[in-house]
Amino acid sequence: MYRESRPVAAVAGVVESVWTGLVGCRRPLRVFPDGCVDLVWDGTVLAAVTTVRGVLRHELPSVVWTAGLRLRCGVGGAVLGLPMTELSAGATPLRDLWAAQARRAESELAGCGTPGEARSVLEALVAERLRDVEVDGLSIAAARALSAPGARTDRVAARLGVSERGLRRHVRHDVGVGPKALQRVLRFHGFLKRVEAVARDQASLADVAADVGYADQSHLGRECRRLSGASPGALVRSWTGRNVPD
């Protein structure tokens, strides 16, 4: 089980959502790329998790619940305090980045009896961080613009008042990949949001491919396999259990 909710107003500008995972027994998990960074408490370690370069295979520990918050696409470098290109894919213990500040948060999280308490600790941690860093809104705006079907990086750069080289520098620092690679991730994430519609026979794969900006269904298939390791039909089948052609 996975449940999302809105963050408190103090961090809403940089936090997309706060969430709780109800785990139970130890199990593997696939985390698909979305360009965001999650701060995740698994009961033992507070980690920054990034998946922008491809699907992440993560082993969930045997705990009752986990908690986290998702930083908006385009703020990772500023909030974490380093270029995202220097952060390895997967989970990085936050104490390796924020030292005493992260260890203090881990101590508070270890004393939380409910997911809600843990989410509040994470929100307070980010709010504290925001007093010491300046978030550049350009990368947030770039991510939003690049998520639009048919977006072109040269036009996005011109609209934001920077050169294409400048856009690439900002996006690589705050997300970890260049604008074109981020655009591919965001387009794939747009498809993931429509998987339920295909599963419920409210849309076809071809319709969804066109709607989110792929050239055709074959283009969707190639990108889906590259970013998730599975075909579009396999992702729909994993949702419903029924047979869906690729």
TrEMBL record:
<dbReference type="InterPro" id="IPR050204">
    <property type="entry name" value="AraC_XylS_family_regulators"/>
</dbReference>
<dbReference type="InterPro" id="IPR018060">
    <property type="entry name" value="HTH_AraC"/>
</dbReference>
<dbReference type="InterPro" id="IPR009057">
    <property type="entry name" value="Homeodomain-like_sf"/>
</dbReference>
<keyword id="KW-0238">DNA-binding</keyword>
<keyword id="KW-0805">Transcription regulation</keyword>
<dbReference type="GO" id="GO:0003700">
    <property type="term" value="F:DNA-binding transcription factor activity"/>
</dbReference>
<dbReference type="Pfam" id="PF12833">
    <property type="entry name" value="HTH_18"/>
</dbReference>
<dbReference type="InterPro" id="IPR046532">
    <property type="entry name" value="DUF6597"/>
</dbReference>
<protein>
    <recommendedName>
        <fullName>HTH araC/xylS-type domain-containing protein</fullName>
    </recommendedName>
</protein>
<feature type="domain" description="HTH araC/xylS-type">
    <location>
        <begin position="136"/>
        <end position="238"/>
    </location>
</feature>
<dbReference type="Pfam" id="PF20240">
    <property type="entry name" value="DUF6597"/>
</dbReference>
<keyword id="KW-0804">Transcription</keyword>
<dbReference type="GO" id="GO:0043565">
    <property type="term" value="F:sequence-specific DNA binding"/>
</dbReference>
